[in-house]
Amino acid sequence: MGNVFCLFCGCIGQSHVVVVEKWGRFEKLAQPGLNFFNPFAGEFIAGILSTRINSLDVKIETKTKDNVFVQIICSIQYRVIKENADDAFYELQNPKEQIQAYVFDVVRAQVPRMTLDELFEQKGDVAKAVLEELEKVMGEYGYNIEHILMVDIIPDSSVRTAMNEINAAQRMQLASVYKGEAEKILLVKRAEAEAESKYLGGVGVARQRQAITDGLRENILNFSHKIEGTSAKEVMDLIMITQYFDTIKDLGNSSKNTTVFLPHGPGHVRDISDQIRNGLMEAESGCVNDV
User: Fold this and answer.
1) pLDDT digits (tens, 9 = 90+) for 103-160
2) Is the separation of the CB atoms in 96 and 26 below 8 Å?
3) Phi and psi at residue 59, in whole multiples of 5°?
């Protein structure tokens, strides 16, 4: 509801306070509600003040410690103190200009002590310093400072471009480091896997050869014991002939179109066994001579 006045009375809205003078001097503060005035006694309404919160945006241009010019936008929220509305009415002619002047003074005293990065990190400290100064000064004039917000910090466009390029370069450098570490880990793991595969393959081959050797020895012993009059050499020759024919069979059954020329005949098997036996004997003879 708004303010309604007539000659002898007036209805004052909830968010307003009226300054009443008598014969040109301050008489009282009329509070919200119905109030009566006596114009014949010299009472009249000198002014109406709103007790709502007002907002004032202040744009300040200043320089940081590292010589970067910035624009700072502050939002100051203030209101008239009901009990001291007469001070607000009589002491200050233009409270917005007064608040703006103090904001300029405090910000331009604080910001040149900081670098641009520190200003972004500590903008709350700047707002706190402005709030403390305004509360101390404006409180004497009947105003209460509710909040101060550092809405925006705007460096020069060339500075913003340079900062973005620096940030992008740092991120690319960090990405390169992470990529290199990932490739290093991948190569190490691949080498470890290859070494483990070769090791397991060697173990498998060794076990396979051991199993073949054990099987041959067992077959030779069983054959010699079960069939009287046979020597180990004869059994060994028989086994080698059997393996020789198994090898020929496997080559014939292979699906690949490969031609292999081999000397064929039972005599060649005996030649192969003699070569193996002679090789073993020469190796043993060489070991004896070294000793």
Assistant:
1) 898 888 888 898 888 888 888 888 888 888 888 888 888 899 888 888 888 887 777 7
2) no
3) -105, 120
Q: Which residue in the block uniquely carries the two structure tokens 């410690």?
A: 65
Average pLDDT of span 61-78:
89
Strand ordering across the sheet containing 43-50: 25-30, 16-22, 43-50
Helix axis angle, 232-253 to 266-290, nearest 10°: 120
Q: What is the DSSP letter of 223?
A: H
Predicted TM-score of the model (pTM): 0.52
| Distance between CA atoms of residues 222 and 216, nearest Å | 10
7 contact partners, CB below 8 Å, separation of at least 6: 39
Neighbours of 24 (CB within 10 A): 9
* d(C-alpha 209, C-alpha 96), whole Å: 99
Residue 23 Ramachandran class (φ > 0 left, ψ -120 to 50 alpha, else beta):
left
Query: Residues 15-45: pLDDT tens digits?
Result: 888 888 888 888 888 888 777 777 778 788 8
Residue 37, classed as helix, strand or coil, is: coil
